[in-house]
From TrEMBL, chains A, B:
Name of this chain's protein: Glutathione transferase
Domain of life: Eukaryota
Domain GST C-terminal as annotated: residue spans: 95-223
Pfam families assigned to the protein according to its UniProt record, in alphabetical order: GST_C_3, GST_N_3
Sequence intervals crossing the membrane: none
CDD domains (UniProt xref): GST_C_family, GST_N_family
Family membership noted in the UniProt record: Belongs to the GST superfamily.
Gene3D superfamilies cross-referenced by the UniProt entry: 1.20.1050.10, Glutaredoxin
PANTHER family on file: GLUTATHIONE S-TRANSFERASE GSTA, GLUTATHIONE S-TRANSFERASE-RELATED
Domain GST N-terminal as annotated: residue spans: 3-85
Amino acid sequence: MAKDMTLLWGSGSPPCWRVQIALEEKNLQGYNQKLLSFEKGEHKSKQVMEINPRGQLPAFKHGNIILNESYAACLYLENQFKSQGNQLIPEGAADVGMMYQRIFEAQTLAQKIGDVLYYNWKVPEGERHDSAVQRNKEGLKAEMKMWEGYLQGCSGFLAGKSFSLADVIIFPVFAYFFQNGGSEERYPNVAAYFRKLKDRPSIKKTWPPTWSDGRGQEVLKDI
Amino acid sequence: MAKDMTLLWGSGSPPCWRVQIALEEKNLQGYNQKLLSFEKGEHKSKQVMEINPRGQLPAFKHGNIILNESYAACLYLENQFKSQGNQLIPEGAADVGMMYQRIFEAQTLAQKIGDVLYYNWKVPEGERHDSAVQRNKEGLKAEMKMWEGYLQGCSGFLAGKSFSLADVIIFPVFAYFFQNGGSEERYPNVAAYFRKLKDRPSIKKTWPPTWSDGRGQEVLKDI
């Protein structure tokens, strides 16, 4: 039981979801949690700001130790609970290297998805340009092609022959891509990876509740 | 000796520098290395692309294991050489948590510095707006104030009482801020942290050679 942990989260946010998956994998159930609404602005509420002054979700703490950055939370949980639940850092140097390399490349992937999805939210109306929108789309296509190559002949996991932090961290990003209309046909290796992992217990149990009705808006359908 | 490692790097790049610091701290000297010029476009050269298809520096490999993402390289080196050189992950859970949390918050800091420094390089001429420039500056000021608060009463290290991966990764970002004209007066805690660490052997030995003539352009002087 993980009663000394608290997670404030939002549905469908890859950063929140990866912390939930890591907690399940490390067998840390029973933590305090609260689902908050981005739409209602609850990520800027007092209860969030007290843990995360940046006003972002996840807001996560273990006792008095605060880990709001999702990558930080995942690495911390593996570091502090090495022998509990599933080991999430592979054994061999090659797999360890691949795991870290992919984890950090995925930040570029997530950023490029965000550049397309949130353009109108990030850029004030008077500063918007069709040329930027187009460039962002091309950037995401190139990035997705790179990952499609990485997943050629994939065994089902991103680093080595077992589930690792690379999967904990990156699976939600690919899921987010498809949820927002990304094409399974143009990225068959990514889609195959997605399908292989989507029913894993830690993932299925934490599936974003707002996604239960199927795909969201098809914003990424041209990518 | 680390003859099975190769680092292609550029002077003054915080991502390159942190890998050099990590190598020194882990007592991994004697690696193959080559200083390349961003100005001459050498980061897009064949020798870089063979290791790093993204055409970015650092390009780093250990044997056949490729770690081009600087955070990945640092975490990998600590993971694979735990008992060699200085231990870069603290002992206690509180310090471990603080280390990871700060490391990932620093990505926001680095991004906000980049938003200001590289605006004209990133944004095509016809898409530039003074309002965006101003917003980026305000964003960096707010971020720096946050770090100024974090470093209130700092013992000299970012996480706990000893040098850790947080310092390896974040020191070069603060150094970069000051090198580009950032104010030591407005951020005295950050400046004190910078001065405490700048003569540490691993840092001094790897100081960017192009910085030896003093500060660069004062682009960040208003921040």
